[in-house]
Each structure stands twice: as C-alpha cells, then as structure tokens.
Amino acid sequence: MGIRKFNWQLWVGLLLSFVAFFSYFAVFVMIPMTRDFPWVNLLLFALSLVLLFIGLRRAFSADRPHPTRSKIVGSIVTAFGVLVMGLFVFTIFVFARLLPSSSNAPHVGQKAPAFTLPDTNNNPVSLSGLLSSQVGGKPTTGVLLIFYRGYW
Question: Is the overall model pTM greater than 0.70, yes or no?
Fold first, then answer.
C-alpha cells in the first residue's frame, strides 16, 4: 500500500486564486500603477492556474490511493479556482465597461458652466470669482478644472 501524498499544488493554487482576487480590492486598488491595469493580480492568477493544472494532473494520475475521490476533489477545487479568476476578469474588465458614459461632461476647450463650490475651509468659491481675481497684480487669464471620476 502506497503512502498517501498530499496534493499541495491543488490547494495552494486555490488559495492563491483567492489571494489574487481579494488583494486587488484590499491593496492594489490604492496604487495607481496596479489600479488602472491589475497586472500583479493577473500574474498571481497565472501562477494559480499553473498550480491548479499541475494539481489536477496529479489528481488524475493512476498512482493515487483513491482515484475516484481524488478526481472529484481535484475537479471541484480547480473549478472553484477558475471560477474565482473568471469572476475577477468579469468584474474588472467587463463590468467596468458597463459604467455609464460621461456624455454630459464638458470637453477639452469647452466653456465650463457657472458654479459655486466650498473650498477646503468651507468658504464658497465661484468660477466667475476665480476668473475676475488677480494674481501678483495681473488678472487671471484662466482656470484649470480637474474632474475626478471615482476611486476615492
């Protein structure tokens, strides 16, 4: 009777797929270089898929002590790992495209509508007030408006 060998590749692959999924939302979304394109998470998923594939091949090998149970467990664990990766890819690359477009946002060079907003000290600041102000004795010639669309 052979010694039962633990299929660590399979379980580490599943664990790594969960780490790759949750680390994006917990850590990598705060870093602009990985938020815009989750390359670190995709590398973790690739490593996870390699480990899951090796573990699945090992589960289907003929030298397993309980071949039927090993095949079933290996298939289920691999399916969960691939499902987690699919959910991540759908969430980041497909679902993000379903966000509404900003068709009403002003375009580059277009005149901005008049508005008044509070500054950091809660004092009202208007666009017309900024345009009529003077800096260093010279009138202001323009105002740079920056629109942030999420991730705060």
Answer: no
